[in-house]
Amino acid sequence: MKKKWPTDLSTEEKIKAAEEKIEAAINNVMATIQVNAANEIINHSDKLSSQVPYSYAGNAYRVFANEMMRGEVLRLCTLWDNVGKGRNSLPTIAKLIDDDEVHKELWNRALSGRGHSFEHLTEHDDPDFQTWGHEQKEAKIAEDTFERFSEPFKNSIKSIEEARVSEPISTMLDHRNVFLAHSLDKRSKQFPDRATKAGDAKKVLLITMEHLETISMSVRGSSFDWEGSFEIAKRNAQALWHRVTIDVLE
Fold it and tell me: In total, how many domains does the chain have?
């Protein structure tokens, strides 16, 4: 019987796929940060809405603002979709690295990259005894350190699974599946509106960044300047929307 993805992949293929999906997820988060900064002004302040009276133009503005929020929600939901070969979601990345052989390979890469040396572990004069002591200590240190190295993998995988079924992520996914993408859920005509609350998108974004940071450090050994990205996005959004004036025709 043919193995199901990603169990049909080799260790190298799993790592490569995880790295590519992490890169894609980071790009998605970067774009979502920009949308979030715009929504802080468009949907979470009266900077623009106060310029639009009850009017035909008001209807158009409401559609625009709602679609901006939907865009942010949909982007965030793709980062928490179920495991899928064509998806760049955190659960998919977690599935790819949830493998002991993957952990060992990444550990070997990290060990090699850091230039670990086990020289001078024993000062006994007998060369044979010195070699034996060196091997024993090397094995012990490697084993202990690997346990510490693999711990973040296990924790990140578990925390991603828990976060996906917890608030506010689970409600946002439910809302997307039922009301924004009806084909994803057959309950679309049965369930009452379970729209996410104001501010939930920002919460989900921050949770996503935290998990993506952990998993990126584990797989790629690199982090990202999220705080700087927020500052740039905020500056960009304010540079545009704070200078916009609306003159309604009717």
Answer: 1
In a domain, 129, yes or no: no
Q: What is the pTM of this model?
A: 0.81
The residue with tokens 């200590």 is 137
Is residue 118 domain-resident?
A: no
| Res 192: pLDDT | 45
- Distance in angstroms (rounded) separating the CA atoms of residues 127 and 28: 56
* Domain region containing 232: 11-99+166-241
Q: Tokens 């946002």 map to which residue? A: 172
Q: What is the mean pLDDT of residues 207-226?
A: 88
Whether 151 is in a domain gets the answer no
Distances (CA, A) of 216 to 62, 93, 167, 206: 38, 10, 23, 15
